[in-house]
Amino acid sequence: MSIERAKAYLKTLGMEERILEFDVSSATVELAAAALNCQPERIAKTLSFMVGDQALLVVAAGDAKIDNKKYKARFGTKAKMLSPQEAETLVGHAVGGVCPFGVNEGVRVCLDVSLKRFETVFPACGSSNSAIELTIPELEQCSGYEQWVDVCKGYEGA
Q1: What pLDDT, on a 0 to 100 scale, did the predictor assign at position 5?
Q2: 117 - beta bridge partners?
Q3: Does the structure show a pLDDT above 70 at 1?
Q4: Residue 157 — φ and ψ, nearest 5°?
Q5: Using H for helix, E for strand and C for coil, what is the string for the chain?
Q6: Based on C-alpha coordinates, what's the Rg of the chain?
Q7: Where does the pLDDT of residue 2 fall: very low under 50, low under 70, confident under 90, or very high at 90 and above?
């Protein structure tokens, strides 16, 4: 179960007690915002892509959408999202719970600048009914990100 992987990983950082689990689904931005009673844009959605032969996660604000031109300019390839089966196999988490915590070896993680306008955000924790509230510096620490990127559009401040 991938929530167990996320919990084990976050435990190494002393964060496992902060994981929230819900009686309702938080598998989409809208459902997560309802479960957390927060604005949808504060949901830190984790999008999974294939770049060459490597899985790439882009964590972005809930109201942001991938800008294909920016993505191609940054990663040198067209944005190709992983299928649900590929995400589970290559990343280690099922769609609806994909997060940057406890991922498979070799998975790259980037944080999109759309998140920087918030003090705290809510990424999932490996299941379709979990989340954790993190400050941006905590997200940087917990995600093992390699860099900030600007590959989204459609959000306030873009």
Answers
A1: 94
A2: none
A3: no
A4: 100, -5
A5: CHHHHHHHHHHCCCCHHHCEECCCCCCCHHHHHHHHCCCHHHEEEEEEEEECCEEEEEEEECCCEECHHHHHHHHCCCCCECCHHHHHHHHCCCCCCCCCCCCCCCCEEEEEHHHCCCCEEEECCCCCCEECCEEHHHHHHHHCCCEEECCEECCCCC
A6: 14
A7: confident
How is residue 27 written in tokens? Answer: 């598998």
Contact status, residue 153 vs residue 64, Cβ threshold 8 Å:
yes
The string of pLDDT tens digits covering residues 39-97 is 999 999 999 999 999 999 999 999 999 999 999 999 999 999 999 999 999 999 999 99
d(CA 114, CA 152): 7
- The stretch 127-148 carries a mean pLDDT of 97
Which residue's structure tokens are 């435990």? 11
At 156 the pLDDT is 79
User: Which of 125, 129, 127 is CA-nearest to residue 15?
Assistant: 125
Contact assessment for residue 42 and residue 118, using Cβ atoms and an 8 Å cutoff: yes
